[in-house]
Amino acid sequence: MPSHDTIIQGTDTDAAVSRMSAVDLGYLEDQYSRFFVQAPAMGAAVRRLPIINRGTYTRTTALDRLIGSFLSATDGQERQIVSLGAGTDTRAFRLFNKESQAKLIYHEVDFPTVIARKYHLVRSIPALRAVIQRPGSIDRTHTWRDEDLPDGSQYWCYGLDLRDLSKPDVTPLAGLRTDVPTLLLSECCLCYLEVTEASKVIKYFTDRISCLSSVIYEAVHPNDPFGKQMVSNLAARRIRMPTLEEYTDPSTQEARLRDAGFDSVHSLTIERIWEDWISPDEKERVDNLEGLDEVEEWSLLADHYSVSWDDVGSETDYDASFMVDSDYEPSRDSDSNGLVEQEVEEYIRASGMLKEELLDDVDDGEEKSSNADTRGPGAVFQISDFGLKAVADKTT
């Protein structure tokens, strides 16, 4: 029987397939995504349900907007992004492919086997090697890097269990700078750790970097009928998300960041991000790709994920208020860290649950927050990650 860590690592393959689905159908543009989808996973399974593709698109747009705003605010400076549990994420390749991204140090941290797999892909695929031209070799600390990217940029990959960061004898992250503006990114990563472990990971960086901002994408609302089904489905796959039990809604996610030492914090659900951050023209373009009949299901799913972020790290010398209302236009590139989204449809078929029954359950359950400001980005993509298989789909 595979270990819990192995199960979590395996979800990255599903993320890559979902990313490919959104790219193939025109939701996103990502010339690198196909290199991270294994051949056996290709085929009919690549096409996800429209509700999943919209989720992938919306989360990606939200994170691209926040990350793009950070980069715009630090333009001309040395700056760095630290991506926790990066897996097959292609964001580093996409950013380094843009001429405007100078002086960027990009760090990825994941299990040694995941980092080694990415290393071998980069070395063997010309399109990836064109971006990371000198990947070197994997050293004894399971680290590999290219410190000689154009325009003073660097790329570092660390093979490390994040829980080891709190150990007194942990090997420091060799390329990590403590004197430059830094964005800490967790896309459905810290949620797999115990609450104290996740807090210690964040503390590792807040203790070392004064100019620090963060973006965290996780599930929320586990206690309403849909959320309970979500947690049940997750447990059936031997997956538990401890932070979901502690940070149950956007307001507690905000409190989490404040407790970690961040000041001006925000949290929105994916539903709110779609409504407020996507322009009418872009909504029309996305709607025309496939159409979406399951509007109520979309709202239900999107309300169960959030993106949380802070405006400014302590003692920062740059203005990060851009993170709230920037005019930055995100690309249609795609992200990683999703789980087996096609299971949404499979679960529905197996359970025979009807959309109306599920929505009635939600209406009869705990009253949802009426505070519109607590609803927003970052929620629908990793549906199987969180066991979000309870949304009924009337299509085949």
TrEMBL record:
The record's keywords, sorted A to Z, are:
Methyltransferase, S-adenosyl-L-methionine, Transferase
Is the keyword Nucleus assigned to this protein? Answer: no
Enzyme class, spelled out: transferase
Its Enzyme Commission number(s) read 2.1.1.233
A Pfam family found in this protein is LCM
Region annotated Disordered sits at 359-379
The Gene Ontology biological process annotation of the record reads: methylation
Q: Does the keyword Transferase apply?
A: yes
Instruction: Output the Gene Ontology terms for molecular function.
Output: protein C-terminal leucine carboxyl O-methyltransferase activity
State the InterPro entries in the record.
LCMT1, Ppm1/Ppm2/Tcmp, SAM-dependent_MTases_sf
Reaction equations catalysed: [phosphatase 2A protein]-C-terminal L-leucine + S-adenosyl-L-methionine = [phosphatase 2A protein]-C-terminal L-leucine methyl ester + S-adenosyl-L-homocysteine
What the record says about family reads: Belongs to the methyltransferase superfamily. LCMT family.
Q: Which PANTHER family match?
A: LEUCINE CARBOXYL METHYLTRANSFERASE, LEUCINE CARBOXYL METHYLTRANSFERASE 1
Q: What is this protein called?
A: Leucine carboxyl methyltransferase 1
